[in-house]
Amino acid sequence: MTRPKTRQPKVVWRKLGKERAWGQATCDPTYPTIEIDPRLSPKRELEVLCHEQLHLSLPDLSESQIDRLGKEMSRTLWSQNYRRVLMGKHKTPVRISK
Ligand SMILES: [Zn+2]
């Protein structure tokens, strides 16, 4: 069973109160989207990002299978110190002069 490659999703950070979820994946093959609530802790953020990407990559898996995979992947990444780096609007480091 082969499936066409999933496009790289657009990731949107927004509060997801009403949806009662920390993350959400929209499996539209032309515009796959992952939404993540920005209020999560950094560790949960990584888990939810993995979780939602797994939904897009493996749409046939059940929620509990995805949940397990997301936890396992993010746990290993986190243990190897993978973290989100926030990029400022300036691409070059700000020079500090005295
Ligand atoms: Zn899920």
Give the tags:
Zincin-like; 2 helices; 98 residues; 34% helix; binds zinc ion
Task: Provide the structure class.
Answer: alpha+beta
Largest sheet report? 3 strands, mixed
Shape: globular
CATH architecture: 2-Layer Sandwich
Determine the strand fraction and express it as a percent band.
5-15%
Number of distinct beta strands: 3
Cα Rg: 16 Å
Low-confidence parts: none
| Helix content range | 25-40%
End-to-end Cα distance = 63 Å
Q: For the largest beta sheet, what order do the strands appear in spatially?
A: 1-3-2
User: What is the arithmetic mean of pLDDT?
Assistant: 89
CATH class designation: Alpha Beta
User: How many separate domains make up the residues?
Assistant: 1
With helices defined by DSSP (H or I, 4 residues minimum), what is the helix count? 2
> What is the string of SSEs from the N terminus onward?
EEEHH
- What is the H level of CATH, i.e. the homologous superfamily? Metalloproteases ("zincins"), catalytic domain
CATH topology grouping:
Zincin-like
Bound molecules: zinc ion
Secondary structure layout:
Elements (H helix, E strand, L loop, with lengths): L9 E4 L9 E4 L6 E4 L5 H16 L5 H17 L19
Bound molecules: zinc ion.
Characterize the structure shown.
By secondary structure, this protein is α+β, with helices and mostly antiparallel strands. The chain has a single domain, classed as 2-Layer Sandwich (Zincin-like), CATH 3.30.2010.10. Helices cover 34% and strands 12% of the residues. It contains 2 helices and 3 strands; from the N terminus they run βββαα. The protein has helices spanning 42-57, 63-79; strands at 10-13, 23-26, 33-36. Strands 1-3-2 form a 3-stranded mixed sheet, with helices on one face. Strand 2 (23-26) and strand 3 (33-36) form a beta hairpin. The structure holds zinc ion. Zinc ion binds next to helix 1 and helix 2.
